[in-house]
Prior knowledge:
By secondary structure, the chain is α+β, with helices and mostly antiparallel strands. It has eleven helices and seven strands. Strand 2 and strand 3 (185-194) form a beta hairpin. The two termini are 37 Å apart.
Amino acid sequence: MKDNAIISIEAVIAYIEHHLDGRLELSQIAEAVHYSKYHLHRTFTETTGMTIHDYTQRRQLTEGAKLLVFSDKPVMEIALICGYESQQAFSQAFKAMYKLPPAKYREKGSFYPLQLPFTLHPGRAAAAFTLRDIRPAEQADIPDWMNLMRLVIDGYPMMDEADYLAHLEESIAGRHALVLRNDQALIGAMAFTDSPGSITFLGVHPQYRSQGIQQLFLDALLETCLPGQEISTTTYREGDRADTGYRKMLEQLGFAEGELLTEFGYPTQRFVLPPREQEDDSCDE
């Protein structure tokens, strides 16, 4: 992706952030950044892996969830602040994403974001990555890893940062975490367990999701870390409107559907990848 396109998308993201308290339409955003709406739709989706509609809806509902938990504003007022013309429309959209109506979510009192603002990497040329580019994570990677986690939080409902950080530190200490960088930018990360074999986190910067990096991490896991093991992970259930493509990604990687689960109160599904017949060095060596 050329720098001028990335700079334009950064302008779009900034515009959206400054107008979360109103109705956001593609034509309005395109006019503000001097793009045709068709070109903007294509460029934004290619750059971020998400449509403008999905991104703005998730950002506005995230702000709505924050207001529900941290303010005493009426639901109708929050609906208007988030660009919805009625409380009913807001409640329907909110429940589809958060799995609770606004009043119940407020009563529960635990905020988590659907979507945080994207940040892009101008000047990062596309590269052909290999397994050799993936290495064990170190403590120094933690700040960048946490920033990446916030960028891909759309794939991890109910994420609690403090709890996640504690588990990340354990994973790094146990050499159960891998990273991939492009120059100084962290563009991908994976955390896993070995007994049983499971992927607890697989995040790729939105700007790089079309480069096959998910497959590269999976190959590193199966060939150098957990050879001969079955691998499992969990993701959204079929039809969940909050899913921005994580089920499809696992299916493309060869995972098969497993049992339905509920994790931290959220409906999910287990996905399983059969063992790969191969022997190689361990990640610990």
